[in-house]
Specification:
Elements (H helix, E strand, L loop, with lengths): L1 E3 L2 H7 L8 E3 L5 H9 L9 E5 L2 H9 L4 H24 L5 E7 L3 E2 L2 E2 L12 E4 L17 H8 L33 E7 L2 E7 L5 E9 L5 E5 L6 E9 L2 E8 L10 E5 L7 E9 L4 E3 L1 E6 L24 E2 L6 E7 L36 E5 L3 E4 L9 E5 L9 E10 L2 E8 L10 E5 L5 E3 L8 E4 L5 E4 L7 E5 L4 E10 L2 E6 L4 E3 L5 E3 L2
Parallel strand pairs: 1-2, 1-3, 8-17
Antiparallel strand pairs: 3-19, 4-7, 4-19, 5-6, 7-18, 8-9, 9-14, 10-13, 10-15, 11-14, 12-13, 15-16, 20-23, 20-26, 21-22, 23-24, 24-25, 27-30, 27-33, 28-29, 30-31, 31-32
Helix pairs in contact: 2-4, 3-4
């Protein structure tokens, strides 16, 4: 489907025999036309929706690009575009739509171009959707890359005739990383215990009738797929190719969120199997891209409903990742993207004093020689003992913004029959368990060291009152002050005793505390 405010696009560029429906929109009305179309049944069967608007192009050519008038109109334009995103959210199509917004050219004065050396190459491009790592600044890109981006999202092969490319694959999240978006969706957790792996559904919102999964066996031989007795669960498809198990199940009854819905048994190897892709189908025929969690030795927290403690909160899927600033926007949307590999996480978990496991029995902890601290990056259970149950729960810490992540003092890492646990002290003054000692998960998705230690090139100040830079790594000789949201270039990481500092490109030093700064990609 094509919506356009520019007549030649419909009357000449779109070929007459193409399987495309088109609509001419008057100036500024294309956004509303698209939003109305999203609410119709025809949109459910539309593979690609393209919308072109002349709004900002007319503004730039009429009164000049990038002046006060231009930015004033741009704010209004952004509000109109928000109408499309709001409709995708309201109809639920934000979960199966990839949104690509891009300009057709740059601008200088009242003409095309960017300056005397760049003709039309410096454009704006942004991506948004379920599998996009929102808030990330992308690198590179051109209009020739639009089609390859769409094919990449659909996991379709790119024809050799295409000249474009997927210029920054880090924009796309792997499904195992979607939990960082705090979507309020179902989750599947694979828990490996020796030669057995149990799969469990959590955070159930719908009546689930089927599950389709891809599980990497990590070189192990699958000997048996065991279903719960009298559960009404059936195997519709089971095959192994290139070390990956494809498993499709149907459920006559709602799977329990407390018990596993299938157990995999192996006979060789010791590497853990991992679930990398999965979709569930509901009783109404809805397909849901679930959150995925892989655990070993039951090393994770669960709430009373059997949900993994990786927080499944609400997400704003209308957020976008952008590349270069530029002129007027053309906006493209294509349905049903899938997931792709993501950028590695820079949040490094600490390395406490190691302890020898003793085959599932309780091990007496060894005190750490150096004081260490942790932040909780997601919903986290704080327990009275190493056995995580409702009766031993001190409290839940809710997921929070990075500068408000709950803080703990790390005392030891303990190995138990339930897996590894961190023994910690609650350092959050407003917490009802302040200064109490307890236990939390060692799941690296939920806890992180308090300071960045590697792979830092740019950071954004997230401390509400900003932060100071210093002329020395001991942070005693103040150099300047940076306000919140300031973006800083990092030259290198420097250690100062037990702390880590970031040396900026201007030679001064700032803290590496994740409450104060956030890594930019």
């Amino acid at each position: 489907m094509v919506f356009s405010e520019w007549g030649p696009l419909i009357n000449g560029i779109v070929e007459p025999d193409a399987a495309v429906t088109s609509k001419y929109s008057v100036l500024k009305h294309s956004f509303k036309d698209v939003a109305d179309y999203i609410g119709q049944a025809e949109f459910d069967n539309t593979a690609l929706t393209y919308v072109q608007t002349d709004y900002m192009d007319h503004t730039g050519h009429g009164t000049g690009f990038y002046n006060d008038k231009y930015w004033h109109e741009y704010a209004a334009y952004d509000g109109l575009f928000k109408g499309i995103m709001d409709k995708l959210i309201a109809t639920g199509h934000i979960h199966d739509t990839l949104v690509i917004a891009n300009a057709d050219h740059g601008g200088v004065s009242r003409d095309h171009g960017q300056d005397t050396t760049e003709s039309n190459t410096n454009i704006f491009m942004a991506l948004g959707g379920e599998t996009i790592d929102n808030g990330r600044r992308l690198k590179g890109g051109s209009n020739a890359d639009i089609s390859p981006l769409i094919l990449h999202a659909l996991q379709a092969e790119q024809p050799a005739s295409m000249t474009g490319k997927v210029f920054d694959k880090s924009a796309f999240l792997d499904q195992t990383d979607l939990s960082k978006k705090h979507r309020d969706v179902e989750a599947i957790t694979l828990t490996q215990k020796g030669n057995h792996a149990d799969l469990k559904l959590g955070n159930l919102k719908h009546l689930v009738r089927t599950a389709d999964m891809r599980i990497n066996l990590a070189g192990r031989t699958l000997t048996d797929v065991k279903l719960p007795a009298n559960s009404g669960t059936k195997i519709l498809r089971q095959s192994v190719k290139n070390g990956v198990l494809t498993l499709t199940l149907s459920f006559d009854e709602q799977p329990s969120s407390k018990n596993g819905f299938v157990t995999l048994n192996f006979k060789n190897g010791n590497r853990p199997a991992t679930i990398n892709q999965a979709m569930i189908g509901t009783q109404t025929g809805q397909e849901i891209l679930v959150d995925l969690f892989n655990e070993t030795n039951n090393d994770h927290s669960t709430d009373n409903n059997g949900n993994g403690s990786g927080n499944h909160g609400n997400s704003n899927n209308g957020n976008q990742s952008g590349t270069q600033n530029g002129g007027s926007n053309n906006n493209n949307a294509t349905n049903k993207p899938d997931q792709k590999p993501s950028q590695p996480d820079n949040n490094q978990t600490p390395t406490p004093v190691p302890e020898k496991p003793n085959h599932g029995h309780q091990v007496k902890p060894t005190p750490s020689k150096k004081a260490k601290h942790l932040y909780a990056t997601g919903k986290l259970g704080f327990y009275k003992s190493t056995h995580f149950t409702k009766s031993t729960l001190h409290r839940w810490f809710k997921a929070a913004k990075q500068n408000l992540w709950p803080r703990f003092s790390l005392l030891n890492r303990v190995h138990t029959k339930d897996g590894y646990r961190y023994k910690v002290k609650d350092l959050n003054r407003k917490s009802k368990t302040f200064n109490k000692v307890g236990y939390i998960t060692t799941n690296k998705r939920l806890v992180t060291a308090t300071e960045y230690t590697s792979k830092v090139t740019r950071v954004k100040v997230i401390a509400p009152k900003g932060l100071n830079s210093f002329r020395d790594k001991g942070l005693s000789k103040k150099a300047s002050h940076y306000n919140a949201k300031a973006k800083l270039s990092v030259k290198r990481i420097v250690k100062d005793g037990q702390h880590v500092r970031l040396q900026l490109s201007n030679g001064t030093y700032v803290t590496a505390d994740k409450h104060q700064v956030q890594v930019m990609h």
